[in-house]
Amino acid sequence: SLTTAMAASARLLFRGAGLKAYTANVNSGAQSSFGTTLLRLSPNCSSQTKTQIKHASHFTYHPDPVPTMYGPTTKMNLFQSVTSALDNTLASDPTAVIFGEDVAFGGVFRCTVGLRDKYGKDRVFNTPLCEQGIVGFGIGAAAAGATAIAEIQFADYIYPAFDQIVNEAAKYRYRSGNLFDCGNLTIRAPWGCVGHGSLYHSQSPEAFFAHCPGIKIVIPRGPVQCKGLLLSCIEDHNPCIFFEPKILYRAAVEQVPTEAYTIPLSQAEVLQEGSDVTLVAWGTQIHVLREVVSMAQEKLGVSCELIDLQTILPWDTETVCKSVAKTGRLLISHEAPVTGGFAAEISSTVQEECFLNLEAPITRVCGYDTPFPHIFEPFYIPDKWKCFEAVKRLISY
Amino acid sequence: MRRGWDEEGDSSSDDFSDTESDGNFPLVIPQDYLGLAFFSMLCCFWPLGIAAFYLSQKGALRQQPFDSSEEKPQFPGASAEFIDHLEFIQPNVISGIPVYRVMDRAGQIINPSEDPQLSKETVVNFYQKMTLLNTMDRILYESQRQGRISFYMTNYGEEGTHIGSAAALDSKDLVFGQYREAGVLMYRGFPLDLFMAQCYANADDLGKGRQMPVHYGSKDLNFITISSPLATQIPQAAGAAYAAKRENTNRAVICYFGEGAASEGDAHAGFNFSATLECPLIFFCRNNGYAISTPTNEQYRGDGIAARGPGYGMLSIRVDGNDVFAVYNATKEARRRAVAENQPFLIEAMTYRIGHHSTSDDSSAYRSVDEVNYWDKQDHPISRLRHYMTARSWWSEDNERSWRKQSRKTVMEAFEKAEKRHKPHLDLMFTDVYDEMTPNLIRQRESMWRHIQQYKDHYPLDAYAK
């Protein structure tokens, strides 16, 4: 824009002139420079204390191979793959609109950057701060024929919209005898642990919604999956909730097709074949388990079959049961608390279908039954060591 | 600091919290054009300075110029003047927003210029629809008492709000209701057979027997299927109106709710969204004095629902809901302006719920018979309209007698027919959860049939379609 150009030229001017003018920093103001000075002058403060050292990530990101069947690809991280999906949608569907808190300037995670400029303020717009309003509005727009893409700023804040999602969106088609539906509605929300998110920026609420017939719940593991699954959700004629692992927004980078493509819903993907243990997860946890697969092979000589569930509801029971019938052992892992978590549903169904195939009890490696803690996060999450230990126990049962 | 992207581009889009910005620069460029202009001129960079100055003036209308030399609040959050003495604003609850009416309680026009001067045919139709609704209500209420249907809600006393507002809309306008708006559907031509089919949950029910009675819906008549949770339709109506605005087909949306539902968070959400997002929407509140047993003085402390409208920046009016012409006039004008100006309107129709909340309620537990009788006898929308018609010799005693007989007959015919019909096929329990049946539901359906086959004597299979 013109202002950016003007600001850039002004910057250029000052660099060239070697001026070091003082202007009050409009963002931080006087208080911030005061604070910095104070810290520098204090004899007890070292520049970097133990607690300040940033913890390494609990996983290593494993990118998908470059897809070849969807046309040309370009490097994208996860939030860019979301933008790309939304860009494709707004381009091809004139009824599509994107709305939520702060989406207009690009979103707090930059998922909607550039879209308002490109498609107009009537199509990409901010709403007041009200999740029940955002989802209710989305339901109405969808029922009236528009493709409605609602953003909830963090999955942790989706609960005010619970009534609208469960009592309205999920039941719209059924209760009207198929006269009306809100299949055009997709709800997106950042999801999962992020290293420092604590109680209200780390939650994985899929289990609350899994108990609700009529909606679909989808969680991608990386950019290629994200774009394809998001486009499937948008196209799908049922209201969908799409949870985006926020820790992967920048960390996950892959070659992603620039054109639109879809990845089918309710089809779990076997990422690695194995013969001894079936591992099931979704989202970020897939990358944790990838490492567990290698560890199990190297240290225990155990061959693991890794399945990415992708769609939580309706979930692909066939793929999981077929795998457990082969291996006889199942480990399910998610960050959400273990009691009533989605692993419980998978476990229950699998023991019904594969009881006689099981060589060991089904194991769940999940978060503890506490709210998601801040400083204790490294100890809370189901990391690779906990999963590795669980594999060990499964094998030696 | 975040500013919305704006098509006029009058605010700087530099985001200083951007962690990917190139390098750390010690100097902060003024974010507004005017500041940039002075800054540039100070540095003798004239082209930049002049351009910035020009743009600062152009953008002045949208962007508030911050000028502390002016004795006026500069806050972005409100446009106001300063005041130097402490004064709380008194909410006006003694003499609130006045009630607009066209007819007095005896059906006489008060201000002739407000008479919509509708044709005899139109007015007779109003009357017949209100009375047909009343007749259907009596028969279906009674049928629940006799155990023929499971539940019912009557509309006694509120017929004027339904017919007056429905008549003022276009047939393609989308209607979101709560549960006490059957007259709107009746006015639009929903056949008695389908009302009955829904209440009996028989095989003719458009809703496929899935919901309790009075949860009507009609795609053809643009009436969104009713759901039990209160006020959920309010933000939905805002979304539908926004979609209608984008379609640009001169379509409005109306959203009905009671004064009790207006206390829900969803109501606040819907009002705020519709005003902020400029939706062509009419909010129609039926203030009938009670939410089950809760009277209005336990529902709110302010001046009803109409007084909340201005708080959202919404044009609002209070009308006599028992005056079908007042309801008609207000709705008609609100609809015209909502579509022309893309803004929501709030109509609070004052009325009285003469009947019980539902067949599960006995209102003598919380209100006097005298109170109910007053409204039934002294201020009823049906009798007020009848007086208007008889004063013009549009409706005689003979008309009344023969219409009563005819409407009762047609309702009874539909009723008897609905009672005899089968219930929907059992497979319909499993469809429409999603657009297509999932493998899981197919398995569950098969499991159900296997079970039914084995235990068929214990299930009322004969009542259901084969």
UniProtKB/TrEMBL annotation, chain A:
Pfam families per UniProt: Transket_pyr, Transketolase_C
Cofactor(s) the protein needs: thiamine diphosphate
Alphabetized CDD domains for the sequence: TPP_PYR_E1-PDHc-beta_like
Keywords, sorted A to Z: Mitochondrion, Oxidoreductase, Transit peptide
Record domain Transketolase-like pyrimidine-binding: where: 76-251
One GO CC term, this protein: mitochondrial matrix
Molecular function via GO: branched-chain 2-oxo acid dehydrogenase activity
Catalytic activity: N(6)-[(R)-lipoyl]-L-lysyl-[protein] + 3-methyl-2-oxobutanoate + H(+) = N(6)-[(R)-S(8)-2-methylpropanoyldihydrolipoyl]-L-lysyl-[protein] + CO2
GO BP term, pick one: response to nutrient
EC id: 1.2.4.4
InterPro entries according to UniProt: THDP-binding (IPR029061), Transketo_C/PFOR_II (IPR009014), Transketolase-like_Pyr-bd (IPR005475), Transketolase_C (IPR033248)
Localisation: Mitochondrion matrix
Keyword Mitochondrion: yes
Known role: Together with BCKDHA forms the heterotetrameric E1 subunit of the mitochondrial branched-chain alpha-ketoacid dehydrogenase (BCKD) complex. The BCKD complex catalyzes the multi-step oxidative decarboxylation of alpha-ketoacids derived from the branched-chain amino-acids valine, leucine and isoleucine producing CO2 and acyl-CoA which is subsequently utilized to produce energy. The E1 subunit catalyzes the first step with the decarboxylation of the alpha-ketoacid forming an enzyme-product intermediate.
Record's subunit section: Heterotetramer of 2 alpha/BCKDHA and 2 beta chains/BCKDHB that forms the branched-chain alpha-keto acid decarboxylase (E1) component of the BCKD complex. The branched-chain alpha-ketoacid dehydrogenase is a large complex composed of three major building blocks E1, E2 and E3. It is organized around E2, a 24-meric cubic core composed of DBT, to which are associated 6 to 12 copies of E1, and approximately 6 copies of the dehydrogenase E3, a DLD dimer.
Protein name stated in the entry: 2-oxoisovalerate dehydrogenase subunit beta, mitochondrial
UniProtKB/TrEMBL annotation, chain B:
Residues annotated as transmembrane: 33-55
Predominant subcellular localization, coarse grouping: membrane
A GO BP entry: branched-chain amino acid catabolic process
UniProt superkingdom: Eukaryota
Catalytic activity: N(6)-[(R)-lipoyl]-L-lysyl-[protein] + 3-methyl-2-oxobutanoate + H(+) = N(6)-[(R)-S(8)-2-methylpropanoyldihydrolipoyl]-L-lysyl-[protein] + CO2
Cofactors that this protein relies on: thiamine diphosphate
GO cellular component: membrane; mitochondrial matrix
InterPro entries named among the record's database cross-references: Alpha-ketoacid_DH_E1_comp, CD225/Dispanin_fam, DH_E1, THDP-binding
Subcellular compartments: Membrane; Mitochondrion matrix
GO molecular function: branched-chain 2-oxo acid dehydrogenase activity; metal ion binding
Residue stretches making up the Dehydrogenase E1 component domain: 128-425
Signal peptide extent: none
PANTHER family per record: 2-OXOISOVALERATE DEHYDROGENASE SUBUNIT ALPHA, MITOCHONDRIAL
Function: Together with BCKDHB forms the heterotetrameric E1 subunit of the mitochondrial branched-chain alpha-ketoacid dehydrogenase (BCKD) complex. The BCKD complex catalyzes the multi-step oxidative decarboxylation of alpha-ketoacids derived from the branched-chain amino-acids valine, leucine and isoleucine producing CO2 and acyl-CoA which is subsequently utilized to produce energy. The E1 subunit catalyzes the first step with the decarboxylation of the alpha-ketoacid forming an enzyme-product intermediate. The branched-chain alpha-keto dehydrogenase complex catalyzes the overall conversion of alpha-keto acids to acyl-CoA and CO(2). It contains multiple copies of three enzymatic components: branched-chain alpha-keto acid decarboxylase (E1), lipoamide acyltransferase (E2) and lipoamide dehydrogenase (E3).
Family the entry assigns: Belongs to the CD225/Dispanin family.
Protein name: 2-oxoisovalerate dehydrogenase subunit alpha
Annotated source species: Esox lucius
